[in-house]
Hints:
- The protein is elongated and about 110 Å long.
- Helices cover 65% and strands 3% of the residues.
- Helix 7 (168-177) links the parallel strand 3 and strand 4 (186-192).
- The termini are far apart.
- The protein is mainly alpha-helical.
- Strands 2-3-4-1-5 form a five-stranded parallel β-sheet, with helices on both faces. The protein has a two-stranded antiparallel ribbon with strand order 6-7.
Amino acid sequence: MTGQQRERRPHGALFEREQEIEAAKRAVDDLGARIAAGEAVSGSLFLYSGEAGAGKTPFLGELRSILAEYGGCTVLQARGSASAETVPFHIVRQLLQPALASMSPERREELLGGWQDIAGPALGIAPPRGTLGDPQGVRDGLDWLVTQIAVNQPPLAVIVDDAHWADAESLAWLASFVTRVTDLPMLTAIAYRDDELEENAPAFLQQVTSGAHRPVVLRPLTPASVAQLVRTSLGPHADDPFCREVWAVTGGNPYETTELIAKAKERGLTPLEESADLLRELGAAARGSGLVTRLERLGSATTRFAWAAAALATEISPRRAALLAGMGPSEGAECADRLRQARILTGTDTLEFVHPLIATAVYQAVPPATRTAMHGLAAWAMTNAGLGAAAASRHLLEVHPDDDQDLVNQLREAAREHLAVGAPEAASRCLERALMEPPSQDDRAAVLFELGCSALLTSPPTTISHLRAALALPEFPKELRVDATYRLSQAYAHNGQLGEAAQVVADQVSATPDGSGRMRLQAAHFLWKGIQLEEEGAQERSRRLAQLVRGLEGRGNAERAMLALRAFDGMIRGEDALEVAEFNDRVLKDGHLPPGLGWTNTEWGFELPSIVGITYVYTDRLDDAEEMFNEAIRSFEISGWRGAHLAFAHEFLGLVHFRRGRLREAESFLREGLRLADRLGPGLPIQWDGTCMLIDTLLAQGRLDEAGEVAERYSFGPPYPPAMVMPDAACVAGRLLLALGRTKEAVAELEAAGRRMEARGRNNTLWAPWALDLAAALAPDEPERARQLADQAVRHAARFGTETAMGEALRRAAHVAGHEGDTLDKLGRAVEHLRKSPCRYEYAAALVDHGVALRRVGRSSEAAGRLKDGLVLAEECGADGLVATARGEIGGMDGAGSPSP
């Protein structure tokens, strides 16, 4: 990029903006120079705030002029509109559609890659593939697209004006994306009114102002600058009192100042003190009622055309405005000319208001009945033009309720279209407006049901409120009641209300006849009860579940769901792993999840396939578990579900790698899962799972300090979430405390965990190894109790019966054994069990522990073999702490394998 900035004629809005303009120019120059030199590039983010008329738009226009002087710069620009705030992705489409339209379909597809079907519908360049788009997935797809444009077509400039009027979907994307722009070869400039943005988009304001990027406030002009503007336009003879009155009337507002000076010039005012009294009258004509009066002087037809333009608000088609105003195209063109001459409208093929202040004043002047009629006609015109219900919905929302069932149907269709592109808030607005119409008695329940389901991925409390209201209606259709109740229970569960989730389905079971619907509700009841950390009546629930499952073969998805729950419950209780896995196998069809029980199926939710995969993890069926969680990642990515679902899949694939002993891979997946979860906010259940697994992984790697840092970052400790965590959170907390040397705290934590587990019959020593860790903590002071706890854990592991459970329990029990013979026996048996286990880290630990114990009794040759084998395996696992231990023991032996003196 090269070029010299030309001399520009002074513009009122750019007075006293020299510093800001120079800062932007330096950023453009620096960006261009670094790209030309092939150096590492860091982008710039500029935020400009100010009141209406402060000159934000002319300033951004100046920035575009600077960019235009440099060849090859890609500029994406958009402007918010008060009337388009309800149009999903309105800003995003303004930014990106022109750039995409200039590309061939092949180039667009190449640029978007796998995001075509996820972000394409939101961009308006591809039809939706499903019925429920995930907003987070859409935002990730937009991130990818803009990043690709920035990398492939540098430098890139993204300019957004009037961001305070941006639609919620675009603003949510901007809020997340602006934190990344400094890592890309791009310049981003966003202008907004801070007083309105704070009210409409606090999350965006917090995001863009919380870091190093503080907004530049464009303040009113000083009296001296106003005087310079007056004299530049009206002549150097303008006296000080006249200039001072111009400043007093406008408050130094750049837009109002330039408008007032222009009107004074039109009226032929002499810029002297005797004319100053007329300035207030002229100033009033530039805004509010004065502007309306000026508009009315242009004639009734021109006024109606201006009203129609205000109703359309954005991308104003002269022909469509004429239609709304009830006139032909030629008369509309004449009206547009008069409005251009009056500096109210600008543009030709597409019109826009000269300033948002004018648009607001004109819109507010439209009589309510006329405004409603125009919005209704605009909606009809857009639908008739084939633009769809979603495009027309911003007008449909403005029509007064009138018991119009066609309008209800249009709004429901618009909601479905909004949901498909990942705009649930827009869908909710349409359905809430449909309820105001109101819908017929037959449709009211269905609208409430759709309204509740529209927020399933984004707002559990909203879903709860609307589905409860729907189910309370006596006319609620019986065929929807099971589905609505199940989804209500899901919303309660996702909101951390597991007790309510279990109760709402239990209440409905008695009113539901035998069949798949009743069993579906029973499955939900057992699910939400069974994953409660402090479940009341756990033993009785397990007994009832076992009784209900007896004889089920998995002939339908309701039966398969019950079998999955039975397998999970058996795994948590530490029952025979072969029987547990056999229940799990009956859930699958030809080794895969059956149709209707997939990861993205909304009828059952992702919880059921999740517990199938988790059960395989803890029953040593790691190949099956890995295949399932890989499939989960693929399914969620293909569907664009990039929030908690994808975070979950990464974390549990990390758990699979941890169990295999691939500790580096486990850490990578777990950190990615937590990164995805962190974007959704603090305290989510999926963050607990990821934190537990990551701490466990770091401890296995010997990275104690980092494990402590993770615990501190996520405030890891009691109170724990109401749902079970994998592995048990209290057990991991106790293990961490023990590793940190905080033995008393560890004992208290582990004893509390043990009481909770024993009361509920949860005896899986891999998921909740409280007894083994407690035994290690108690061994120095209470050796007998430590041995009793360890022996109890060995018995539970033997009942479960997997090689990993047996080997790990024996290995840990050996550390608190009463004499060396017992220690060696337990470690020898542990090695044999773990040799046959798929869990390589535990096997490496057993080899090293056995080698240490053998060396201690003088069996150095055997010890050397065990330690060397353990060292090799520990290095493969990435268990650095275990590697150090093995090397230290080997280093203490001479070349012949004998203990050194």
